[in-house]
Write a structure and sequence with these properties.
Elements (H helix, E strand, L loop, with lengths): L5 E4 L6 H10 L4 E5 L7 E3 L16 E4 L8 H14 L4 E5 L11 H11 L2 E7 L5 H4 L1 H9 L1 E4 L5 E2 L4 H13 L6 E5 L5 E2 H12 L4 E4 L2 H10 L4 H15 L9 H6 L6 H7 L6
Parallel strand pairs: 1-2, 1-4, 2-3, 4-5, 5-6, 6-9, 7-11
Antiparallel strand pairs: 8-10
Helix pairs in contact: 1-6, 2-3, 7-11, 8-9
Amino acid sequence: MGCLQVLVTGGKGKTGRRVAARLLAAGIPAVVGSRTPEGASDRRFDWSDLSSAAAFDGCSAAYLVAPTDRTDHLAVMQPMLEQAMKRGVQRFVLLSSSLLEPGGPMMGEVHAWVAANTPEWAVLRPSWFMQNFSEGPPAVTIREEGIIYSATGDGRVGFIDADDIAATAVAALTAQAPLNADVILTGPEALSYADIAALVSAVIGQPIRHVQLDPADLAARFVAQGLTPDYAETLASLDRAIATGAEDRVTAGVEQVSGQLPTSFRAFAERVVNRWI
C-alpha cells in the first residue's frame, strides 16, 4: 500500500507506541493520536471530541485503539470513523480481542461496522497480553506480594507479546493488498495462570503463586484500581470465560500476517525480568 501517513490512536499505550516506533523505523510517516500530545509527531485526539478528527488529516491509514474508559465503543467511535473516511483515510486496522466476536459487545460492534463500511480493513484479535504481567497491576502484586490474582481457575490462555501484535499491525497497515479479514493472534503456547506463576518464579528465582478469586472479588479489585464498575465487570466476565476454556487455543495468525514467529512467555519473561525484582 502506498501509504502517505498513518495515524496511530492510543499511541501512548501498550501496542500503539510499539506500532508507531515500528512504522518510523521502517521509514513510514506516523503520527500519534493522544489526548495529551507531547512530541512533534503527536496530534490531539479524543474519541469523544469530534473536533479532534483533524488528527486524521493527511493520513491514508489508521490504527484504531478503542477508549478504555467506556464500553459503548461503537457509539463514540462511529462518528469519528466517518470523519476519518471523509478526510481521506482508506485503511483501518482495529485492535479488538480474541474473545469478542464481530457484532458482540465493545470492540465487537466496531469490528462489524468497520468490516461493513470501510474501504480497506483488518481486525486484530489478540489473546491476553504478556505485558499485563510486566506493565499492568499484576507486576505490582508479583513484586510486592509474590502473587498473581485472577478468576481464571485452571483455564489456559495463548498469551501474546505486544511486540508481536505491533509487528502484525504494521504488516496489516502497510501491505500492498488489504487483509479485509479478522485474525486471532496468540503466542506459541497456551498457559494457565499457575503456569505463568511458575515461569516467573523460575526466571526471578523467587516463589510466585496464583491466587484464584471469585469474579465479583476480582471486579472489586479492578474498581479499586480505578476502572468503572461496568468495565470492571466486563473484564471479570472475561476471566470467567477463560476458566471455561474459551481462550485455550494457539493460532498461526502472527506468522501468517507478519512473517515472524511469536515470542514464547519464557523468552518474554527473561527480557522483562527487571520489572519483577
